[in-house]
Amino acid sequence: MNILISYEWLKDYVDLKESPEQFAARVSVSSVGVEKLYPQGEDLRGIVLGQIKTIDAHPDPKVTGLRIVSVDVGHKKHAAIVCGGSNLFVDSFVAVAVPGARVRWHGEGELVELQPTVIRGVQSDGMICAANEIGLFDAFPHAEKEILVLDDVIAEISNTGKKKRVIKPGLPLADVLGLSQDIVMDIEVTTNRPDAFSLVGLAREAATILQRPFLWKDRVLSDAAQTLPALSVSVKEKKICPRAMFIRVDGVKVGHSPWWLKRRLLSAGQRPINNLVDITNYVMLELGRPMHVFDADKLQGELTVRRAKDGESLEALDGKTYQLSDKHIVVADENGPQSIAGIMGGEHSAVTRDTTSVIFECATWDPVVIRRMSHDLNLTSDAQRLFEKGLSTESCPQGLARSIELCLQLAGGEVASRVTDECVEPYVAKKYTLSSDEASMLIGIPFKARDMAKTLTRLGFEVTAEGHTVQATVPWWRDHDIESGRDLVEEVARVYGYTNIKPQFPAGLATHALAADLRWERRLRDVVSGVGWTETYTYSFVPRSLFELSGFDPSRMLRVRNPLTADFEFMRTSLIPSLLQVVADNQERKPILHLFEIAHVYFGHAANELPTEQSQLTAMVMNPQNVWREAKGLAERVLSEMGFMKIEWKRLETDRLWHPGRCVQAFCGEKLLATVGELHPRLIESFKLNAPVAMVDIPLGTLVSSARATKPYRPIAAFPSVKRDVAFVISQERTVQEIVQVIRATSKLASQVEWFDTYRGEGVPADKKSLAFHLDFSTNDRTLEAQEVDAEMKKIEEALNTIFQAEMRV
Amino acid sequence: MLTDELQTLARRAEDAIQNTKSVKELDDLSIELLGRKGALTTALRGLASVSAEERPKIGALANEIKQKLETRIAVQRSQLAELGMAERLQQEREDVTEPGTLPVHGHLHLMTQAMNEITDIFARAGFTRMRFPEVEWDWYAFEALNMPKDHPARDDWETFFMEAPEHEQSGKMILTPHTTSGTARLLEAQELPIRVINIAKTYRRQIDMTHTPMFHQFDGVYVDRGVTVANLLGILDYFVKEFFGHDRKTRIRPYHFRFTEPSFEVDISCGVCAGTGFIGKDKCRTCKRGWLELGGAGMVHPNVLKAAKLDPKVYSAALFGFGVERTYMMKEGLTLGDIRLLYKNDVRFLEQF
Description:
The structure holds two protein chains of two kinds.
Chain A: E1 2-6, H1 7-10, H2 20-28, E2 33-39, E3 47-57, E4 67-72, E5 79-83, E6 93-97, E7 102-103, E8 112-113, E9 117-119, E10 122-124, E11 127-128, H3 151-159, H4 173-176, E12 183-188, H5 199-210, E13 233-235, E14 243-250, H6 259-267, H7 275-287, E15 292-295, E16 303-307, E17 313-315, E18 321-323, E19 329-333, E20 336-340, E21 344-345, E22 358-364, H8 367-377, H9 382-387, H10 395-410, E23 414-415, E24 420-423, E25 431-435, H11 436-443, H12 449-458, E26 462-466, E27 469-473, H13 485-496, H14 516-530, E28 534-535, E29 541-542, H15 544-549, E30 570-571, H16 576-586, E31 593-603, E32 612-622, H17 627-641, E33 648-651, E34 658-668, E35 671-679, H18 681-686, E36 693-698, H19 700-703, E37 722-731, H20 736-746, E38 750-759, E39 768-777, H21 786-804, E40 807-809
Parallel strand pairs in A: 13-16, 28-31
Antiparallel strand pairs in A: 1-12, 2-12, 3-4, 3-6, 4-5, 6-11, 7-8, 9-10, 14-22, 14-23, 14-24, 15-22, 16-19, 17-18, 19-20, 20-21, 25-27, 26-27, 29-30, 31-32, 32-36, 33-34, 34-35, 35-36, 37-39, 37-40, 38-39
Chain B: H1 2-19, H2 23-34, H3 39-44, H4 54-91, H5 110-124, E1 128-130, E2 135-137, H6 138-141, E3 173-175, H7 180-189, E4 194-203, E5 214-225, H8 229-244, E6 250-255, E7 260-269, E8 278-279, E9 282-283, E10 291-300, H9 302-307, E11 315-323, H10 324-329, H11 347-350
């Protein structure tokens, strides 16, 4: 979570000598991350302070609403400006844009550069600005046609500060408003450090790291009010609200906050509302301590911290009405909820201009309850973001004391009740010990107990050191974050500076073996992509619709209980549906597609067991011609790469996914190696595919244990082989695999049997086909004689004739 | 007489040789002139009628002519051959700007390329790649990692939960949101020391320009006696230099994770502005003040070691976990703005890499 911090403001709490850049560079490596620096007042370049000297009517009597205003802008000659402002008064201080300044006309559209102009026949030397024209509307809200009058601001600036400042017309407005010296820092604070999500917390960090004086003094609640009447408060949910403090102040005067306070709120990105609301926001920024303030006159009866009742609702300060239930915690009076606990106040009891009595609330809430409420109501706020990180119960007195201090200073009034403090249990600070050896061993550089104690003390720990050991009492603002002695190591090491630690690469040998599935996945990715197939990565979860379209039954698959959308619902047991989708998505882009993926599939599980995650290789080709053979060839290539030599191919004709006449499975013994074939024409239609698609599906995970990366050497023939080409006319039902088996079984001298053609048509009876082979005959001790080969051929012919009634054609 | 005849023959032959246009023509002419039935042989048949004194002279002349013609033929042959080669080369001239015939080639997905590179870098440093379940028990993903029951990551809107009964000890079945669940398993196996890089698919309930519900992470873990932050820094520095370039710097900053203490954010110096934060006078748009956030790291929390029944007083462990997509997208020159493109599988995207 990020916070915007004014560097000038931060200097109220820590005596900084560094430039903002130096601060950012040093603090970022030891504490919070300073991500960006924004110089202030740059948008006000060319805007100067002016003082109105005379106001005259426009010379043209037909022009109404425009006056000629003479303004002192620091030069001898006053500027003559044509102005339509409704609130022009002599001697008023105003913001004057001189030609070259950038303004937003009537507060709308882009910034435009101001040019000298003639308005209705009169030369205008510049422009008297409205607040919305120079980006100051949030600081100085106004009605249409009202220009920005700075008299109150000038009076405040002249009378505050150590030295009386003389403010003269002509000064750049950014200087007058104190913006031009300032830099706003955008800082990332980690979620465990809500204490650093504040000016005081950041100042404490900076003071420790940069070794500068920390200037903040804790505020203490005065006992004086304890004689006053108590407020009627009851906390029903003490577990969720471990501490709640309330106090009433009567006779307050609600109005605008002074410029110094507005400026600080604006620097942090907060919009000033009125002095009372601004005080609560100011205390939140200063101390990281969210506050709430009620209009006391709008509350009736006892204030209760309780669960909302079903049917109750609250119009919150954002103008929206929230329906509440017993999941939600509220602060209620006898009429119902007045605020959503820890998140946002209600509109009804909000402080307005007419408010004269207020009740400040300062409480702590269970962080998980706040987070779930916020999510449930879809409502976030700065207060909620802090509460869901976890705040200490000890933060409450500070927040209340500071709020009262500022209230009395800025809105007057007097405390009208004693402090009501509903606290579950007395606070006990935690203590942890740390030895210098422990720190040194973990960080890799030597630490001394003395230095560790010094660092921890500066961070606010109470420390006692004994020998090599320090015992540290955790300050309340760190009580959610420091949980053990190990956490103290981090404090010591980060303040020392991680950049001061020299990297030491730990030399060593591998401790674990590379698993076979990882080894094979990588090798096969190279093989398959190397022969022209492109790899995809599809999501592991697949929508029900895609499974059903592909003919799978998702009911037996593992389902995500809370899918992001229906697109990510079932854990896939096959990559085929995902790849079919990819083919369908891409077919208009490219008519021929070769795609593959290697990923896990997830198979059913018994109780108390995780599903089996198995690596699967699936490849898919879309091509108007020859797809089936391309797929088969890829499978053969992959299986050969994996060292599977004895493969038996068996036709698969009973599956709904595959073309019954063009699907085959490879086995090695009982083990299924691959399924290869064309997609069933029905699915081609379902997916509206333009061309046939064939697939290879290999259960890689089950094969890797028997795959062989090292192939056995087979001696190269020492004597030339005798080659014969031959064809057999044979029944359509017979297969190449059967013929090859018979040839090999019949002739020991047939060293290679290679199919090269299947012919059907003229010259071959309709119920038959002609299968052509290259045969190689050889033996390893001599060159074969022609007569020997003739004898082998004769044996083969006879065998095939006897078994399959095949006829040989030479 | 015969002498004149021979001289004339020689002259004509020389002209004829000169006029041949091809090697073939020259070969034919050569046989015609010098062959067994050639002109010179035929002419010498008249030698019988020549007187005995003149015979050696004419014989010598004939030899001289023969040698001369042979030389001429050889010269002409080499000239013709050269001419023929030139002509052939001219004929075979190609427009060499026509594209070549591409060898068949497919494409590995960017994530495969990234994971291969990461695997190799760590393999060189003695870290073995491993992989652990994606569908995982709550115990390994959260409980054993010191994440309290009510931690936001364990909420329904951050993590995917499976429709499956809870395990008596290990709790709910989930899709692991980080590879650190694998690290928890690795620690539990107690095969020490451990130098492992664990890369796997991970899942979170988020989809936008920089998030996809499925993504990849790599967790590096080094466990032994006396492992220090300085060791962690050494490993990170090695990886950054190998992966991004030897001119890149690494730094760690305080951060917060439940399973490490201390925890760090790892930054690398920006390659676009060379870590200065500025390009000329303008702020660098790529980085934050000269640094880019790479991911998280830390020393494994004592509670995590204890959950794996390892004694934190004896063993310490350095750990880091980065997103593969994020890390790879930080490589210069890729300029891939939208992470979702990685999983759309548009061939026009896939075939670029």
